[in-house]
Specification:
By secondary structure, the chain is mainly alpha-helical. The protein is built from seven helices and two strands, in the order ααααββααα. Helix content is 53%, strand content 4%.
């Protein structure tokens, strides 16, 4: 089992900082560039992560359900300033998970009730993998921090087999012989390195 409490919050903050660094590196001419995520441009990918962060205060701090606010966060949320939109959403998510007692709460996700700590772990893993996607799309360094790779692998491995069925992930691919931990993780999540 992965870190809990302050360790989980530290990993979450590291993942958001990594993605933030990549968002700030996007050049104006790259927002329409393709990403490793089928049919998503750079703007689509950043929008997806921004929406995910916007959910966190609603679900964790305000204790709303997905059904309560489902329509409010559909579509494009980046506006004319994607970097500022991302920064604000990431800050709000970090603060919501870091609020006293927040990780011990239960949140109501689309698939049912879940501990906020498990939700935070899922969000951390998602930010890590999408930081690689964004890195590849914009030509930024693709090497992920070892601690985040290890955390993400531990988080997603138990349920990776069912991710393709969600329609949000490609089928796993066979990693090359002798692949390092990052390559194995990305292959597990359908990324070709």
């Amino acid at each position: 089992m992965g870190p809990s409490g302050s360790g989980l919050l530290a990993r979450h903050a590291e993942a958001l900082a990594l993605f933030t660094e990549r968002v700030h590196a996007v050049r104006p001419d790259q927002w329409d560039a393709p990403t490793p995520c089928a049919e998503w441009s750079v703007a689509d990918l950043v929008n997806h992560l921004t929406v995910e962060q916007l959910w966190v205060p609603l679900l964790v701090t305000q204790r709303r359900t997905v059904e309560d606010v489902a329509d409010a966060l559909e579509g494009e949320v980046l506006g004319d300033d994607p970097v500022t939109a991302w920064d604000a959403a990431a800050t709000a998510a970090r603060e919501a998970f870091g609020a006293p007692g927040a990780l011990a709460r239960t949140v109501h996700l689309s698939y049912g009730r879940t501990r906020a700590s498990a939700y935070c772990a899922q969000m951390t893993a998602d930010a890590v993998v999408h930081a690689w996607d964004l890195s590849r799309a914009i030509g930024a360094p693709e090497r992920l921090p070892d601690a985040l790779v290890d955390f993400t692998a531990e988080e997603v491995t138990p349920y990776a087999g069912g991710l393709e069925a969600t329609g949000l992930f490609a089928a796993p691919v066979e990693p090359p012989p002798g692949a390092d931990a990052q390559t194995r993780l990305l292959a597990l999540l359908g990324r070709r390195v």
